Structures
1.
Amino acid sequence: METIKVPLLEYGFAKSVPPGQAESGDLHFVRCTQEGILIAAVDGLGHGAEAASVANAALSVIRESLNEPVISLIERCHEKLRGTRGVVLSLAFIDPKQGMMTWIGIGNVQGVLVRARASQGTAQETLLLRGGVVGAQLPALQATVLPIARGDTLYFATDGVRGEFAGNLPTMENPQRAAERILDRFHNGIDDGLVLVARFTGIGL
């Protein structure tokens, strides 16, 4: 699979399902609009078709509300998914004009931002995850805003991927190859796994 290019972004993804399952409940979403770039990784609780169904329901809400702030998107998903098994998810919105990224995580979808130019500050930022389940119980919602620059790379990984993947992330690996390598090396083999790698290219600025 080739790295996908959209305005301002290059990204790749890899996913896997555990033995005996035909569908993955771990899904991703990337969309570039006039306002900026929205990136999401969603993990439907459990496995198989039911997990995939609730994850798809969350993505439907996100597609319908692209221009909403990330906190509003989570609140809309929460209302839509009440009475279901729910999802955990992480969202990021990049505002290319301001050079800022807003991100938030509910549950255990890990997020890491690797900076292309570490001399300008911290080389790696980690998403603060807040406990809860979208559709069942939300924590107090608070997003984090941080600067983003050309060449910075965002990694999202669901809980089927061991957390040590973030230990030594390169700055310039091809996003698709990075996603495949991380999944191959760190997938735990017993759960759905998704790795999404997105590099902010600044093309079109």
2.
Amino acid sequence: MDITIRGTGGAESRLLFGALSSLPSLADATKSVIVTESEIRRLHGASLPPWPVAEVPRGEAAKSLVELEALYGSFLELGLDRGSTVVAVGGGTVSDLAGFAASTWLRGVDFGFAPTTLLAMVDASVGGKNGVDFRGLKNQVGCFRQPRFVLIDVGLLRTLPEIEFQSGMAEVVKHAVLAGGEYFEFVASERPRAAADASTSALERIVEGSVRLKAGVVGRDERESGERRLLNLGHTVGHAIEAATGLPHGHSVAAGLATICRLSEKLGRMKPADVSRAIGLVSSCGLPASIGEAASRASIDDSPELRALVADALVADKKRLGSDILLALPYGIGDIRVESYPIRDLADFVKEAP
């Protein structure tokens, strides 16, 4: 795989398969700094080049204004200038933070990603969205700017815990539902439940299929003014589930995807057979296929109070337009459309959905 996304102003982002140890071929060793976290250094430090390292916290805790300021401090101490390259090695939270920091340091320095999770490989590292959370709301502060390169080493997935691999499969399932056709059928036939269960070739085909789909959409609509909104499939309800339960992002999106398929069926858009296929694929990947299952995974009672929290979280969604919200709604496998939908109606549905 070697894909190029051409961003605003002609900037190019190159997406390729390669070993983590090949990073020196993509960035100047004398002008580069690695941004990563402690567990990645423990697991993969031997494959990293001997460049200066700025360490950030693990998980969503990295995506805060406090950690952004701390990373700026590291950039200052390391003497980063406009000729420097920031290389984020880690999951999506590391790349989100590092990409935003690089995009705003000295009004923008070069950066690249080496994702270490399936979720980051197929989603967070592709598309040029960088940012941090604010007051408990995801990605409220950020920018669009493409990394110069994304180096994908699927061999790194061998060390990924099963729960994190499943989380990445949620985005793969979303892409499969968006694409339909051969890609959906391939994912449905493979559906690896843990990294060790799939061959390297199968993993590469899964990752490449998702990356090609997302890269194509981003290349046509970088700033999310039209087609790119389709990539929000499952995310509107998923983000609300994540906020209410604390489940991992991918697991929340999976439950959100299943929920929005059920809504589409209720509205008479999506045929029951397609709803069954989509939800069946979610379940076969070991992911929660309903809000009730998401609550169970989070060891929370599926109560009216929880459903009210999910409904309330919908109001804070960035896609809200007054009393409506831009909703990626499936009409079938491979047929997703963006519609303006009343938030009140969506909130009422999540209170009663499975």
3.
Amino acid sequence: MTTRAYTQVLVGTDGSPTASCAVHAAGAVARALAVRATVVTGWYRDQVDDYEQIGNTGSAESAGARNSAWATDMVVDAAALLRQSGVEDVRTATPEGGAAEGLLKLGDDRPGSLIVVGTVGLDRTADRLLGNIPHQLTHHAHSDLLLVTRGDCDADVTWGSIALATDGSPTAALAVQHGFELATALGARTTLLTVAADEERGQRTLDATGVTTDDTRVAVGRDVTGALVEASRDYDLLVLGNKGMSGPSRLLGSVANSVTHDLPTDLLLVNTTR
């Protein structure tokens, strides 16, 4: 396998602790791949959080100006952090509207981008129904998506061990390829991981991939999602294809969809619909 460089890293931030970790993670990937990092914060012209304050200022237009200024402050601070961490090419974007929509458009405009976000609300049903940013991205991004679960990052985010999940399918092979290439750039140890009813069946799946990694592992269990989630606790990053994240299979409940709502570790969700 040859190393595939993402053309750029897009990271969304709102200043929250998990978003700050996403910025650190984006910086680590951008440095390893020597690509541009673009910080994105969306804002709404008519979104008002403090009605008394709006009454004092006299118009919703002033609220829009404050929201725009807030978004600018967010991206400027995050961009400064990225530059301090050693990322040479840093850009910012403050699209009017939802941050998810802005990240999706920027990713579509430049194929091969990697989108990085934190996971606040991804595991809460109410937030998922309202459509928070990571939830929207998991179901609509055409780019690969790095979901950062950690919420306390005073230093750079690193991944020493990466699990590449496979079920032996062609779509899983694409996810393994992307994960392997990123792991190579990051200098991380790789484990080819599968879930099977027994060790023998799992080993046949691993052998059939033809992929050489530092280690292999069969997580034995009939509950694929549960076994995958439990096994992923032993790694810094899980790589998984997004098969079933949209369309009818999403409603029926795919493994990828279930795993994203019960993440014990960071997740690289690879778009396998290309």
4.
Amino acid sequence: MVKIQEVHTNSYISVTKLPVSDYAINPYIGCSHKCMYCYAEFMRRFTGHHREEWGDFVDVKRCSKKMNTKKLSGSSVFIGSVTDPYMACEAKYKITRTILGQLVDSDASFDIQTKSPLITRDIDILRQIRNIKVGFSICTLDDQFRKGVEPCAGRIEDRIKALEELHVAGIRTYVFMSPMFPGITDFKAIIQRTSEYTDEYWFENLNLRAGYRTRVLDYIESNYPELMLLYDEIYRRKNLSYWEQLSKEIDDFCTGFGCTYHNYFYHEKIKKK
């Protein structure tokens, strides 16, 4: 059972260290998808939720002030950097829809990312925002694997159908293959399945931080024991050759396929540069 409560915020806008954006907008605190690999669980120590695990709570952010869109002028903004703006509670609270309504006249560029088909509800507003791209996180086409690592997130086919609906509505779309699981994520199959509805692709490697490192490695050992030598080499021996080779394969395939793409492997280093 997810604990949901409303909290007050002075602003939805925050500065971000993401390589693709100057600012972030997060309509909620927490996320109910319970993704095994969620990098955002570090946020838990700032939320006051000392008893709940990440994935067991969502704070609905209420802001009494209208958003200062002039602050965003000429900048890039990522919507949903540490939460999914279209998780289940958005159907009731409509915080994301309210925020989008305030962005219609902004000249900033926006990227919004989700795992939920609920975003198609807001096509009417999305079409009014001048410079916006909508992305779906897809790290697999295998819904059984999805159930293992993203147990409460939307079905893969539902994401692809929503991607198609957005594309048909004239909204720019992208697929974010993140995180890419070594030996499991088939990026070529995902591109071939979604290319008709996708304007560009983003790629990010699976990083294992302290909070969920053991959890992910235990899952791989239990369900994909044949891959443990590979995971040991990457995550315990710190061998980067797998990602270097995969980067080359992505370059070669995407160039040959003729698709626009961005590789965000090791984006902390990219941001510093």
